[in-house]
Amino acid sequence: MEIKKIKNARGEMTVPGDKSISHRAVMLGAIARGETRISGFLPGADCLSTIDCFRQMGIDIEADGENVTVKGRGLHGLSAPRKTLYTGNSGTTTRLLCGLLSGQSFNSEITGDASICRRPMRRVTEPLSQMGAKISGEYCPLKITGSRLHGIEYDMPVASAQVKTSLLLAGLYAEGGTIIREKEKSRDHTELMLKAMGADIDVSGLDVCLKPVPALTAQEVIVPGDISSAAFFMVLGAIMPDSCITIRNVGINETRTGIIDVLKSMGAKIKLENVRVSAGESAADITVSSSHLTGTQICGALIPRLIDELPVIAAAALFAGGETVIKDAQELKVKETDRIHAVVTEFKKCGADISETDDGMIIRGGRTLHGADFKTYGDHRMAMSLAVLAQLAGGASSLDDARCVEISYPDFFDDLYRLG
Ligand code: S3P
């Protein structure tokens, strides 16, 4: 697909609902008592995979675009799926289901697409087995034998909200309390939603402590726009001349706003307005305008707060003066594709000065870039980052497969071209 070019980016927009919150609203809604009404749901392929899996376990879910109603059947209301649950491209669906299904009274099997079958599952199966779970294998397809679980105290070796959530979901079915200690704080949407639904959960610094309760209670969930989707337009607004974009109603949960901190530290003009809070989740309107960026260092506790935004932040760094160093980001290697290798390989095609390191990359900005025929590796965030980069590269650019934006942002290209 040829990437069309816009001259500048001006105007107001919204982005689709937060992917992490959308998944959790369906999953927790399914095991709560009562009806969970979700507005602002992300009808992207990953979240539709989650809906599909729960329908297969007997949950009645009415889905009409952004409005979804989940008719919860309580903690013990899921029924045995008749066939293998298919999670598509969704790591979140796969890993969270491992935790949730471990403590059921039935057996199940999970698999996904080729990318999912390559992604490491040991990070969830290992601690879950310490809780008494029986899961075969370290890669999909995984067979889960429903078992009696007990709580554990677990020090997480990697900062991962998927692992943390998987253990918390198992903890709902375990005997005794579950304590999870994070190395660095990862996104906390599960903790906030569980609390709102009446779970016995305490968070103190990097410790999360959960005790089982007889029931969760359905809640209305208002999903804000996904900051990981807004990120593409935040970067575009900052790097394009004569641009100013306002993105309305974007989630600004502190565990997700690393991109705002980094762009600000690079000198981007960013303004947050109309902050509101719903069930612990904050949202705001974000305005970004053309800026002179300078390189920066991105490492440590900041990484989990912007892990999904690193490909587009790397694109921003190409247009910043000086060097940008990204460290401590080994996790990028086990995302939908190896995002360190993919970013470095593709960015080099257009003349970028970028090199791969063991745990990140080094980017020297300010080079003149030319268009190229890019590969997306079937990775939605690669496709959108390359589309942003292509706007500022001289000449034509194309993507080998742009359909993968369906995963998290089906209307991405319409929204991009409308700004021009
Ligand atoms: C997610 C957690 C992150 C993130 C992913 C969504 C979640 O993964 O990259 O896109 O919803 O919990 P990790 O937990 O593997 O860091």
Automatic annotation (TrEMBL):
It comes from the Bacteria. SUPFAM superfamilies: EPT/RTPC-like. Keywords: Amino-acid biosynthesis, Aromatic amino acid biosynthesis, Cytoplasm, Transferase. InterPro entries: Enolpyruvate_Tfrase_dom, Enolpyruvate_Tfrase_sf, EPSP_synthase, EPSP_synthase_CS, RNA3'P_cycl/enolpyr_Trfase_a/b. Residues 4-416 form the Enolpyruvate transferase domain. Its main location: cytoplasm. GO terms for biological process: amino acid biosynthetic process; aromatic amino acid family biosynthetic process; chorismate biosynthetic process. Gene3D superfamilies: Enolpyruvate transferase domain. Pathway: Metabolic intermediate biosynthesis; chorismate biosynthesis; chorismate from D-erythrose 4-phosphate and phosphoenolpyruvate: step 6/7. Phosphoenolpyruvate binds at residues 19, 91, 119, 162, 339, 381. Its EC number is 2.5.1.19. GO terms for molecular function: 3-phosphoshikimate 1-carboxyvinyltransferase activity. GO terms for cellular component: cytoplasm. 3-phosphoshikimate binds at residues 19-20, 24, 160, 162, 308, 335. It is an enzyme of class 2 (transferase). It is found in: Cytoplasm. The active site is at 308 (proton acceptor). CDD domains: EPSP_synthase (cd01556). It catalyses: 3-phosphoshikimate + phosphoenolpyruvate = 5-O-(1-carboxyvinyl)-3-phosphoshikimate + phosphate. Catalyzes the transfer of the enolpyruvyl moiety of phosphoenolpyruvate (PEP) to the 5-hydroxyl of shikimate-3-phosphate (S3P) to produce enolpyruvyl shikimate-3-phosphate and inorganic phosphate. Monomer. Belongs to the EPSP synthase family. This is 3-phosphoshikimate 1-carboxyvinyltransferase. It comes from Candidatus Ornithomonoglobus intestinigallinarum.
